[in-house]
Every structure is written in structure tokens, then in C-alpha cells.
Amino acid sequence: MKIIDNINSLLGDDLKESLHPRAKVQIAASCFSIFAFEALKEELSQIESLEFIFTAPTFVPNEVTDKFMKERREFFIPKANRERSLYGSEFEIQLRNKLTQRAIARECAAWIRTKATFRSNKTKSQMQQFACVQGPEQEVAYMPLHGFTAVDLGYQSGDAVSNIVNRFDETASTSTYLNLFEQIWNNPENLQDVTAAICEHIESVYQENSPERIYFLMLYNIFSDFLDDIDEDVLPNDRTGYQDTHVWNKLYNFQHDAAIGIINKLETYNGCILADSVGLGKTFTALAVVKYYELRNKSVLVLCPKKLADNWLNYNSNLTTNIFAKDRFNYDVLCHTDLSRTSGDSFGLPLNRVNWGNYDLIVIDESHNFRNNEALKEHETRYQKLMNKVIREGVKTKVLMLSATPVNNRFNDLRNQLALAYEGDSEILSKKLRTGKTVEEIFRSAQAVFNQWSKLPPEARTARAILEGLDFDFFELLDSVTIARSRKHIQTFYDTSEIGQFPERRKPLSFHSPLTARTDVMSFNEIFAQLSLLKLAVYAPISYILPSRLRKYEELYDTQIEGGKSTFRQVDRERSLQALMTTNLLKRLESSVEAFRITLQKLHNKHTSTLSRINAFSADDAQNSGNAASISDWTDTLLDLDDDDDEIPGFDTDETSDNENGNNGTSNSEPSNDEIGGKVKIKLADMDLPSWKHELEVDLEVINALMESMAKVTTQDDAKLQHLKQLIINKIDNPINAGNKKVLIFTAFADTANYLYDNLADHLLTTKGLHTGRVTGKDAPTSTLKRNYDFQSLLTLFSPRAKEKALVLPNEPAELDLLIGTDCISEGQNLQDCDYLVNYDIHWNPVRIIQRFGRIDRIGSINTTIQLVNYWPDISLDEYINLKERVENRMVIADVTATGDDNVLTAKSSEISYRKEQLQRLQDEVIELEDLKTGVSITDLGLNDFRMDLLNYVKTNGDLTNVPNGMHAVVPAQPQMGLCPGIIFALRNLNHAVNINQQNRLHPYYIIYIANNREVIANHTEVKSLLDLVRASCKGQAEPLHAICRLFNQQTDEGRNMQSCSDLLSVAIRSMIDVKEDKDLDSLFSSGKTTALVNTIAGLDDFELIAFLVIQDGSS
After folding, report:
1. Angle at CA 735, nearest 5°, toward 730 and 741?
2. Which residues fall within 8 angstroms of residue 1046, CB to CB, at 6 or more apart?
3. Cα distance between residue 707 and residue 603, in whole Å
4. Residue 60 carries which DSSP code?
5. In the chain, is it the N or the C terminus that has fewer CB atoms within a 10 Å radius of its CB?
6. What is the pTM of this model?
């Protein structure tokens, strides 16, 4: 007997001496590895035969085949590991990383077919493990033999404390083992032949793989934790029938992915933000989710801005314009401002009886309006009402938030919205995340990174710069609770052949029209100079209270903020209102002469009315009525104002009319001769009336002068109006898409929309025979058609294809070719039949311009090209920006609305340069929402699409537990997509403690893309873009691309010479070491913990190759 310790003497070397030509080899072991065959290939090729027994069930059918995937993974792992050892055990990683296993597998399979027979123990009985070699001259036995792998042969190190094998060559011993093997081998009750299965499995290593197979193999490994954690409770239940609904079948493929992902996130984390870019159909995606929950008998509330309510109401009503009428939606619709109201009706619901706490799901449209949760004394803000009355109270409420701009200039915007999902208790979410920090810590760190980034010079303030500063935890949080894709992502990485593409955007047309050509009318700059003189003291009565009487008003109306750390005074609210009104004057001047005139007239009336009251009070005997007479300020009019409203109650609208949407508000009419309207009562006897009267008279003089000048401008003198008329005629006569005469005109104000309709509709009908429509959201829609149509019907007549007119208005032959609208249709509407959009006024927020254009700039448009037209004031952009900055900075206050909700005036000094840059770009191009530098874009960072891909694949095809690692597929290079010749490697880090500066979101898995010239195209921190490339090039490619595979096989001698690929793998590992060293150095000079000198990567031996994708140049 000889003892082989596999240190000083190796089993493999001893076998080489024992394996003589024509020898018969018999092995009983737990596993077989092709790398053991490779080590003994020369000797094994000369033997007569090999008989191999798997001592435990291997490559035999499972007894249980109908269990849930996760259960199979748990209970059959040992068997799976034995089968996977065929392609190399966990300790033969170094050999597998040489990339030669394909060639080895081919040779091993050919050898097995001629020399070897495999049988497996099919019982639960244990068998001893040993090996026998019968040669012409001697017999040798080895035992114990755990497996037939390179580790057992002593050529690779394993994790066993010792690996000692006894060698017997005495006849008595060898005969015992030979007889034992023959006895077992010839017992059909215990063994089953698995040779064919072995060959089939080995063939899977050397056969050509389809790109799709490799894509899913990568995903299966990377997202194994997701599959382990998933269960039926957090996935859409197919038995609800949601896939048979009309709305589900209206969705595009990328919307299906989003809807399934949203349901998964709602069930797992209780909340989700859908932040897809403009034009990608967030409303339809949300409706599909709503229908799913309705089918589960859940109560749903849609909470939206007033201007978008009609769109949501259309889909839950039994109307001909509801294309989803068959789905019988039953959700409630309320407005953001309804949270501040306690009486009256809103769309038929009495607000004093709404059971806010009884909703299972709440969909918040434009959820960024709830990004501020500042608490105020004696006043429950909309955010607090939403949190306390809807989310926390009553049944458990899931929250789906819709916003194209969930983050503005701080990550707290996102945190506050997400807090709605976890009821304000961040621990609830923190426990569910795979993060090392709490939610609060994650956002604090992210905000610190943002603060540093915002201080960078503009050219360095890029999206990549901030993303490189954010760590794993932030991306994990974002990935868990958001879905955000850009149009560029959808176009590049989804099959849009059935949908169609986005239309080509023409360069925007920019026109700078003067007010008029008349010389006796003030110019823009002259009007601006006059507006700067206005104090609008009529909106600030509290500022004129006598000092001796001021204290009682401060006690009544000032509020504590930040937990009592500071005070927000009523006088501050009034200054905010003055700022808002001044800003609105300027906006309305930019919009149209008519809107400006109407506003001036209302201002004139308000001033004269207030002066009359002052005069009446002064003329009266103070002893009789003075103490009783009072006035009130107007700050409470802002309580019902949405953050992005342009129309301001009591200023832009008729003070005696109802709020927007007619039935959605109470009257704003003046309550008595002594009140202007409002809750803050001020006794005239407590005021410095002479000072206030003087300021009112000064303002009135300015207003009268402006009114006199504007009265001279007739419609014929209105330069912008006349230019627009001619522009429309030219477009109709020279369409940019054959036969398309449609034009969509946007304005911020209903008064301007009415003015344009009055001056364009009849002219267009008379001269061109084309019909015009007008929608403002404030009054009934109007058109030149004889019949009266509601809001949705009018939009359907303007965009018949997108709105399915043939279905909803089959008996109406007419169409509208010109539509004039306010921002009540700037979101949530599909109007892509139109190819020509005019901004008659430039909104101060560039986001709004992009949202408007998104009505026609939508995927699936029938138009080849689309045109954006912008009208600008007849001054330089610098003057324009400076003027706005001057107006806003005159009265910048901490919180304009004083409700705890977000500022209506959003511009701060740090944003002015951003705004100028974006408005400058908008003169020359149409920019993407995510490219706006006014905020932080979170689009295209989530990994949800890949998880859903994997889940659907596993449901259909089963799991990939037995698929060997190290396989590859070949795809052609596509430089236009970013696929240049090279290799994308997917690796697993064997040292789980190493995650390079918390930068790798997939740790312990790593993906890296190396070009053939050894340049790193994308490193392991660029996870999303790399997976996108793999997905785009592989998904749907269910068969190998044989022509391109032949080129690769020729270059590598059928996989025998993989040195060039192996070299690229070494470069990939080296690049990650370089990145870690760079990050370590950075961490030494930044706040927080340093990663230097700890958790290092030694090199290739620290990684296992999962799979790789070869991007082959077809010309090679």
C-alpha cells in the first residue's frame, strides 16, 4: 500500500503511470469533471474502457418535478452541484477561466462515445467511492476517492483539510474492490445508465449558443437573489384576468414591463414611482395597474392636479369617448387641492364625507407636487393630510406616484415622495432593502454628493459626474422603488417594429415678435420699466398696520415652522403674493396684449374699489362705524393653487366665477362691501390709511398709463397675432407631412386662448374650410362645428387616429385641424396625429415646454417629422432672463404659498443660469427632459426590465441551475448601438467582502466590456448601460448566429486557441483593480470611510467566469 498525500505526491501523476494502453478503468465517485479528463487526456485516450458510477443520484430524473422553482433550488442543490461539476467544480475556476472548456468538452464528448459508460446510483443508499485500474500486467485500486476532478487529482487546491488517497496494488486488496465494483455495476435495481445524458450535457458546453441563452444565463446568476426571494404574493396573479383587459392589450411591450414591475414593487415595498419620460404613456401604464387592483376588489383613488382631472374622469365614466369603457373602471378622482378643502363637492363626491382612509391604492399624478413636507403650526398641509388621512389611517394603502420630474434640486424631493409609501417610517423600507445604510442615511449621503456636484463648473456638471459619486446603496434604493426609462432607452433597447418610431424633430422655429409696429405704444422694455414701479400694495394691507396695533395680528396669523425654530409672518405671505402677482403680470404681457389688458382692467377695478372703501371709511364718523369696518388680505386665495398653476384666483379670473372645473370649488365672490375676500380680517381703524392710500394711488397711475397705451393696439396692430395667422396659412399650404394640416397652439392663459380663437377660427373656416377648437379647462370647450362637444370629444376630433375616433365618435365625419389650448392638455394626452406645435407664449419653466411638445412627440406617430415653433418677446435672451430674475428676486420669500406646499415661484439665484442655458438650447433644439440640468434625472438607472425578462423566461423555460458557466455566444458588432468588436464578460467575485468603493450595484457579480484593442469600453460601475447592450443584442435571438460564429471559430481554432480572449479577460480584471486603486485614493481625500488598504482584488483567481458575449466584426 502507498499513501498519496496530494502534496508531495499527486494522485494524477500516479494514475498516469497506472493507465497503460488497453487498461480497463472503473471509478465510483460523486462527480466527474472534463478538466480531470483534460489532465489525463493522453493516457485516457489509450485505455480500453471506462466504467463510471455516480455514487449518488446524478443525471437521473427528479422524483419531484412539479414543485415551485424556489423549492427545487433548495432541495436539489447537492445534486445540482454534482451535475455542474461535469464542467468544472467550484475549485477548478482557474481552469475554466482559461476559456478552453469548449474545446475540452468537444474532445471529452468524443472520447466518452467510444470509451466510456456512465451509470448512476438511483437509490438513496450510500456507496463507497474508489477507483480500479485493470492492466495487462497489474491491477491497482485507489480509495477513498471523493470525485474525479482536477482537485481530487491534486492539480488544483480545494477546501478540504487533507486529501489523502491510499493506493493498493496487492492482489487481495485489488480483487476485493474489483469484485465490489462488478457487483454494483451489474445491479440494474440500483443503477441507471446516464451516458447519453452525460454526452448531452457536455454537448451544451461546446455547441453554439444562442445569444438569448447567454443573456438569460447572465441574468440568472446576477439576479439569483431576486429569484430566491420571489414568491407568488408579489407577482401579478394571472387568475385575476388582467391580461385579458382592454387596457392591458393596448399597452406596448415596454409598458407591459413597467406595469408588471410596478405591481411587484407595490406588493414588495408598498410604493413605486413611475418616472418614464414624456411621450412614453405613463397614464395608460398606470391604468393597467389600477385595473389589476380593481380586479382584486381593491378600492382605488386617483389624486391629480385640477387641470388633469378630466383626462382621468374620462376613463372611469360610461362615455363614448372612453376607449376603455369595456373595462368598467371604478376608481375615484380627486384633486390635489381637495386635500386642503373640508366642504363642497369635487366631481360629485362631497368632501366632508369622503372616506379618505379606505383606499387600498392611491395613484398620485404629478407626485412631485408633494415633494415638500414642511409642517406648520395650526395648519395641516396637503402633504400632511395625504399622509395622515389617506396613507396612515384606515386600510393599508399602496402608493403609485407618476412624475416625469420626481427630483428637482434636492434628493429630499424623492425622499418625501417615497415616505408616502412607507407611512413616514423609513425603517419599514430600510428592512426590505439590501443596503448597508438606512433610507435616511442614503439620502443624506446622496444630498452631500449633489451639493458637491452643483458647485462644479457647468461643463463638468454632467449626469455621469454625479452618478459616479453616488454609491451602491442609493442605486439599490432607486432600483427598488422607481421605474424610469427615457425615450432614447426605449428606441435603442426595445423592439419597436410593431409600435413605430418617434418622429424626427425638426430644428425649432423661433420668432421674436414685437407687441406692435405702432410707435405710439410702449415697447416691451418700456412696459417692463413701468411694471418695476408697481408695489401692488393692494395685496399687502397688513404691511400698513399701525405699529401699536401690529402685535395682535402677529399673534393671530403668524405661524411657527421647522418645529418652532422660526416664524413665518403674515407680512411675508403678503410679500409673496405681491411677488406672484407681479410675476403674473409679466407672464400675461408675454402671452398676449389681450391677456395683459384684461389683467390691467381687473387691477384697475381692484384699486378703485379699495380706494372707495378707504374714502368711505374716512368720510364716515369713526365713532359710528369705524371700528366695525374691516378689510382682509388675499393670501388665502393661494391655498387652492396647484404648484404649477398659471391662472391665479382673484387676479387672472373673474372674481365672481367658480374655480376651475366649475363644480370643483366654491365661489370666490366678495363677501361684503367691507371685505376683499379672505380669512385674515384687518380693521381699517388699525391701519395707516394715508400711507396705504398714497401707495394705491401711485400704483393706479401706473396701471392707467399702461391701460391707455395697450388700448391703442387693435387686432390688426397685434404683430404676433398677425404673424401667427400667416404662419398657420403657410403650414396648411405647405404641409411638412403629406396631407397633414393640423396645428396645435399652446398658451398659458385662457384669456389668450379665447383671444386667439376669436381671431383665427372664423378666418380659417372662411379661407380654408378648416375647423378650429378651443379647450381651456376653465369653461366649456368651443369649436366651429355646429354641435357642442365635451372636452374629450373635442380632442378626439383633433387627433382621430390616436384617440380612436372611429370607435368613440363613429357618426361624426368632421375633424378639427386647429386646436388652441392651455396647459390643461399639456400632460396625459395623445395628440400625435398633429405634426406642428406652436408655443404662443414661452413658459418660464423649460419642463413645461418639453411636456407640451410631448403631446405630438410620441412613439408610434404616423408623422415622419414634427415641428416646434416658439414665440419669444422681442428682446434678447439676456434681457429676458435678467428681467425675470429681477422680478423674482425683488421679493424672494422662503415659501410663497405659506401652506407648507412647494413654492409657486421656483426660481432661485442658483437656477437662473440653468434656466438661461436651457431656454437658449430651446431656441435651437428640442431637448430631452432628462437632459435638463435644472434637476437630477433618475431615468435609465433601474434594473427592473432585466428582472422581469428573467422572471418571464424562467416561468416559460424553467430554471438554469444545471447550465454550465463559462459559455459564450457571438453577436455582430453594431457601432451605431455602441457595440464595437470586443467581449463583454460576466464574472463572479469569490471574495464577497470586496465591493469596489460600494460602486458595483451587482456585487458579487461584475460585468465589463473590453474592446479588441484592449480599451475598456465600459467598466463594472456602468451596470445599466452594459446590461442594456447585452439585452439589445441578445434578446429575441433564440438561435445561434451561425455565420458570425464561424468567423469566431476560425479565429480561435474551434476554441482550442483562446489566448486572445483570455488576455482580454486579464485586462478586464486588471481594469477593475485600477478602478479600485483610483477610488481608494479618492476616498482618502473625501469625507466618510476610506476603502484604501482593505478588501483588495488579487487578480484573476478572485473571479469566476459566468459567461461572455463576443462582439464579432463581420468583416474579420
Report:
1. 90
2. none
3. 10
4. S
5. N
6. 0.70
